[in-house]
Amino acid sequence: MGDRPNTATAPARAKNQDASALLEARLAAEIAEQERLRSELGVRNCALDAAASHFIIGDATRPGWPVVYVNRAIVREYGYEPSELLGKGPNVLLPQSLNRIQLKEVMEALRSGHEVRTELRGRRKDGSIFWIGAFIAPVKDGAGRITHYVGVGADITARLEQERVQRQLQDQLYSEMQERERMAMELQVAQKLESVGRLAAGIAHEINTPIQYIGDGVAFLQTAQADHERLLAAYRHAFARLAAGEPLAAALESVKEAERHADLEFLGIEVPKAFERTLEGIGRVASIVRAMKEFAHPQRNEQSPANLNHAIETTLIVAHNEYKYTATVDTRLGAIPEVTCNIGELNQVFLNVIVNAAQAIEDAGKDVSGGRIMVTTDMVRDSVVISILDNGCGIPEENLEKIFDPFFTTKGVGRGTGQGLAIARSIVTEKHGGSIDVQSTVGVGTRFMIRLPINGRAASPAKGAKAA
């Protein structure tokens, strides 16, 4: 028989060829995938190298956690070549004597699987030190084991310096505010001392008049007492004569003579009047002293409920000598509740405005027959409004916006420092959450309106004074 073709092996060869082609295709696909991955890795590396932030990767499976990757930002910032950092521990980037405890705490946190945000001091190759803000996170494999750590950071030295400067500025501002508050308090005390000094002579005069009543009354009572003692001696002598058997008529005549000499009828009328004048003088002195004591009440920072009507009456007593030759004061004090305030400070406000009103009336050429000061109080919603109206010379329109400015004054030398109304506005607006407004017409007069929240400064935001 002749040779025949081996048809049984043809399918096997075809099958082997298909398998080889499939294997080649798979190998080509894997090569392509590896190329793609290498390309993506190159892109990622390029992206990390282009980033301004610091990127570092370390191997957590090897002792010392050596560095396996750093981007260009770290190379630029620290001044090392990549070859000088790769394979080294991360402590090469830290000062020799600094951050050891902090670095140990960071590594322990990473071993526990926790992310860390921290601030570290870094050391450049030239030895200079700077601050780094860092975020460090562990990297785990599919089994959950920590294989690497990734750190992202940036130089925060400038930011920390800025924060330090800001803190310094804040501290400086706080110190300046404290100094300003101290100076304001000193100005307020100085202005009150000025007010008290200005009032001292007037208070002395106010007390001198009732003291004269008291002195005259006591002197008269002293002579009356001497007359009564002489009359009593005459009575005793008459009784002695009667006891000795002398005639009654003679004894009575001596008694009547003594009574005529003492002017007993006159004493019976005038002695009660002398007591009345003396007690009136004592009461007047007591009221002035009490008013001064209340007006000069020790300053306290805390506020408490106070009767503003009584405070105004007290201030009018203290300031009486300032206006008694210039104006008649009328009061219409309404039924108002107690106001939470620092009454000593408000006494100073009332005094300043009342004295200004009296001086404005005097400058208008008026006296007590024509000068008028009207003081009223009323409740308006949740506030008490105090109005002080005078018919003085008035304030020019161009000065209305300036009268509350510190040291502004139109008075002559020796009549004011320009602090009174500035301090009054500070007390009313800043310390009591109220407002102080002024309306004025030259040649007609001026009205000051002081509004105070009943429940104190917490009940109403502070408002600046404004001219109407």
How would you characterize the overall build of this protein?
There is one protein chain. The chain has a six-stranded mixed beta sheet. A five-stranded antiparallel beta sheet has the order 2-1-5-4-3, sandwiched between helices. A two-stranded antiparallel ribbon has the order 6-8. The model is unreliable at 459-468 (pLDDT under 50). It has helices at 10-50, 72-78, 82-85, 100-111, 157-243, 248-262, 264-295, 308-318, 320-323, 343-363, 397-400, 420-431, and strands at 54-59, 67-70, 116-123, 129-140, 146-155, 304-306, 328-333, 339-341, 372-380, 383-390, 435-441, 445-453, 466-467. Among the domains are: 22-160, 2-Layer Sandwich (Beta-Lactamase); 302-468, 2-Layer Sandwich (Heat Shock Protein 90). Helix 5 runs antiparallel to helix 6. It has twelve helices and 13 strands. It is rod-shaped and about 190 Å long. The chain is of the alpha+beta class and 468 residues long.
